[in-house]
Design a protein that fits this description.
Strand order of the largest sheet: 3-4-5-6
Structural class: mainly beta
Distance between the termini: 21 Å
Radius of gyration: 13 Å
Shape: globular
Oligomer: single chain
Largest sheet: 4 strands, antiparallel
Number of helices: 0
Strand content: over 45%
């Protein structure tokens, strides 16, 4: 499933926010910047860093980490 989901902590029910617009099958990490309300996603296959729109779901590439196999 390549979509952003929310989870109701009380019931455990998941709801789709929207599609990421990229394959997230090998996502290595997620990080949330509370100061700027930004979620980051790292794709371990392409080694690209993305931001994720928390309101609608799409991931936007920031750039390559140039690291290899994260």
């Amino acid at each position: 499933l390549d979509s952003l989901l929310t989870v109701n902590r009380g019931t455990g029910t998941m709801a789709a926010v929207g599609p990421l617009g990229m394959s997230a099958t090998n996502s290595s990490a997620l990080a949330y910047d509370t100061d700027n309300d930004v979620m980051f996603l790292l794709d371990g296959t392409s080694d690209n860093l993305y931001t994720v729109d928390l309101a609608t779901g799409p991931a936007t590439i920031v750039g390559s980490t140039a690291t290899g196999n994260l």
